[in-house]
Design brief:
This protein is an all-alpha fold and about 190 residues long. It contains 7 helices and no strands. Helices cover about 80% and strands about 0% of the residues. Keywords: Membrane, Transmembrane, Transmembrane helix.
């Protein structure tokens, strides 16, 4: 079992990037001059970006970042784990490629301290969330399998009530039907 649940990690990511987008909109110098950004970019020998306080681009980037956070918040509030199971591997691939290009490339608009730090943090959160999500999914499947086996044993021993017996019998028939239909498709 994971140390931190998937939901907690997702909310932490949302809170962190909401804070970053807030600072990008109202005080971009805080983001660009943050010690973690400077240390990471210095260690990777990436060019540091200087802040032009009058540039409106930082606010635009902050709004776009905030809207991407909102798009991840809605599936989280609806407990749509399938969304995250589909999106996280794709995000990881894209962010790994972008981080690699940011580190190895020479195009200064993408190969700089901010882009690399952003992709680094996204990769870190995505790996933690993906790992936690897979652990939780496996434990849920194990619980369902144990519960089903217990019910099957009770079914075979005749220990279920009449309604439970009929419901489980229909469930078994549906499973058998789906299995046969799956074999026809293959």
């Amino acid at each position: 079992m994971a140390l931190v649940s998937f939901t907690t990690l997702a909310y932490l990511r949302i809170a962190f990037f909401t804070l970053v987008s807030y600072y990008l909109i109202f005080d971009p110098k805080t983001v660009f001059d943050y010690d973690g950004v400077i240390v990471l970019s210095s260690a990777m020998k990436l060019p540091l970006l200087l802040v032009n306080e009058d540039s409106p681009i930082y606010g635009t980037i902050g709004v776009v970042l905030f809207m991407s956070i909102v798009s991840d918040l809605v599936p989280l509030l609806e407990d749509n784990r399938q969304y995250y199971e589909a999106v996280l591997p794709t995000k990881l691939l894209i962010f790994f490629c972008l981080a690699s290009y940011s580190y190895l490339g020479s195009y200064v608009y993408l190969c700089n301290s901010i882009v690399f730090c952003y992709t680094f943090v996204e990769i870190w959160f995505s790996i933690l969330m993906f790992s936690s999500l897979k652990d939780e999914s496996q434990s849920i499947l194990k619980e369902k399998l144990v519960e089903r086996n217990e019910k099957l044993e009770k079914f075979n021993n005749g220990e279920l009530s009449e309604t439970e017996f009929q419901e489980f019998k229909k469930e078994l028939e549906n499973d058998e039907y789906n299995k046969i239909m799956q074999e026809f498709k293959n």
